[in-house]
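Q: Please design a sequence for this.
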């Protein structure tokens, strides 16, 4: 199928409009034809077009003027200029004005088809270039699914088998597990890799706007539709559309999505015509779609269309062996992004122990945020337990890692919670004062308490900050 879908022919000769409409429709394009420059500009404002075939001499507005105004309003439009009165100067003027090519009349229809194929090849190269640039950015998430745990490797083996085929895939898993990364991996390993990967969160739009976002709309389709809009299915044509949180789609949009999956065509809001699209759909959900079907909130036929293959992304608590690798990767990234000088070298053993023992209810996203905070707070060459969020400590037995309170618990000793918390507070305050060489303000920041609260605790526990500083 051609990369371009919609073509507008603007020519005052009925025979040219007729023959181009016949030939290009037969080649799979959706073609409309108009007879003057003003009508061409109105049509471009009302609907999305991939290509404008424009005659130079037309009533009301000349072709080169249409070229200039069309590209100003629609920068991504491909324009091919045609003329029976052409000259080399006119051809150069058209190309300098932004036209892709200039065709001299009379021409054979296959000449126009050849020019369109060249334009499509240029567009493919531009898209591939953009994709490669995005993939080379340090912060780009594509292509970096890290981990050697058996559960994750099982998912990646499924990705390898599914990537070459166009099967619809439903990715399930908790928030923050990396469902979009799995979708990107499916796309990057597929024959569609050079074409767009478009991601949309279906729960991020009001129910009245999601159809316009996915399928596009015509000018005047609703109150705020001042211009035509190209939908995300059209943007993803030839590539992959990732529908995150697909369970949030309203029922009306579900009907349209089912039609795309069954017929490969979309109908923009406010349009009477349909457009063919060639898109692989990958959906994701953290909700139980089967339960939503039982409650009448999700169409059963759409559920079975989406759930051809289900990939479950394991939560981080099921792949705790991957936590240190992920943490070190995030440390390396945030060293660059935050311009750490000198950079953090890694994790202290006690910090790594805390990271591995924590259940990570927010999964990889929560770990990423914790590492960004730790890189910001760390003073030395390693991430220390004191640089990690308090919630990691709350998940462990009271007392410092490997400290007295933990030993007492293992030996069946004193189980007073109040006494253990008091001992832990004193231990932390002494450690912070040693780390900051007695600097109370900095110690309060490390402990995540106010300066006044620290002074109160120092007095309560009878701590000598200068003595602690000498031990630091």
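A: Design:
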């Amino acid at each position: 199928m051609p990369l371009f879908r919609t073509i507008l022919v603007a020519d005052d000769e009925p025979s040219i409009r007729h023959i181009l409409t016949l030939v290009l429709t037969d080649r799979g394009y959706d073609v409309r034809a108009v007879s003057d420059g003003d009508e061409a500009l109105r049509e471009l404002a009302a609907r999305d077009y991939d290509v404008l075939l424009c005659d130079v001499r037309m009533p009301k507005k000349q072709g080169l003027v249409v070229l200039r105004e069309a590209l100003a309003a629609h920068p991504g439009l491909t324009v091919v200029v045609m003329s029976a009165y052409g000259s080399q100067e006119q051809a150069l003027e058209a190309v300098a004005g932004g036209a892709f090519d200039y065709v001299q009349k009379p021409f054979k229809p296959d000449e126009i088809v050849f020019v369109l194929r060249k334009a499509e090849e240029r567009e493919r190269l531009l898209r591939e270039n953009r994709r490669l640039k995005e993939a080379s950015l340090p912060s780009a998430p594509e292509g970096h699914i890290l981990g050697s745990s058996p559960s994750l490797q099982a998912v990646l083996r499924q990705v390898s088998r599914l990537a070459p085929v166009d099967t619809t895939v439903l990715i399930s898993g908790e928030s923050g597990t990396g469902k979009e990364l799995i979708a990107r991996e499916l796309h990057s390993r597929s024959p569609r890799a050079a074409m767009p990967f478009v991601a949309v969160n279906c729960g991020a739009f009001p129910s009245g706007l999601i159809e316009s976002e996915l399928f596009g709309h015509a000018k005047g389709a609703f109150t705020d539709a001042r211009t035509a809009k190209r939908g995300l299915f059209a943007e993803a044509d030839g590539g992959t559309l990732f529908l995150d949180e697909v369970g949030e789609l309203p029922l009306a949009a579900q009907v349209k999505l089912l039609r795309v999956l069954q017929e490969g065509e979309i109908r923009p809001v406010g349009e009477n015509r349909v457009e063919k699209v060639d898109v692989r759909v990958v959906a994701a959900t953290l909700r139980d779609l089967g339960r939503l079907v039982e409650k009448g909130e999700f169409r059963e036929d759409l559920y079975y269309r989406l759930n051809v293959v289900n990939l479950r992304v394991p939560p981080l608590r099921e792949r705790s062996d991957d936590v240190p690798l992920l943490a070190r990767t995030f440390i390396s990234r945030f060293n660059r992004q935050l311009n750490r000088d000198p950079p953090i070298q890694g994790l202290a053993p006690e910090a790594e122990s805390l990271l591995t023992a924590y259940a990570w209810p927010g999964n990889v996203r929560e770990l990423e945020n914790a590492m960004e905070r730790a890189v910001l707070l760390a003073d030395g060459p390693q991430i220390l337990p004191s640089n990690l969020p308090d919630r990691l400590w709350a998940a462990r037995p009271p007392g410092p890692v490997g400290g007295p309170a933990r030993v007492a618990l293992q030996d069946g000793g004193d189980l007073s919670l109040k006494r253990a918390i008091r001992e832990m507070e004193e231990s932390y305050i002494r450690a912070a004062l040693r780390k900051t060489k007695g600097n109370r303000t900095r110690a309060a920041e490390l402990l995540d308490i106010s300066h006044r609260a620290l002074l109160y605790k120092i007095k309560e526990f009878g701590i000598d900050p200068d003595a602690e500083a000498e031990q630091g």
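Q: Thanks. Anything notable?
A: The chain has a mean pLDDT of 83. Residues 103 and 111 are 8 Å apart (CA to CA).
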